[in-house]
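Entry 14. Structure prediction run on the chain below.
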Amino acid sequence: MKEMLGVEFSEMVYVGDNASKDFTAPRNLGMRCIYFNNRDGLYNNPQAVSGRYEIKK
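Output returned:
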């Protein structure tokens, strides 16, 4: 996507619902990460990300 859109990683945002695994690579690349609290999802644990990531409900 970076090459296709011609943007830097710092301009990209990754949205995920499992903070324990979803954000490792994007953060290492310099991307902003947003935790999506998917209440019906398999990884519904907003306490695991409190204070570390932006939480969207």
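The two ends are 26 Å apart (CA to CA).
Filed with the rest of this week's runs.
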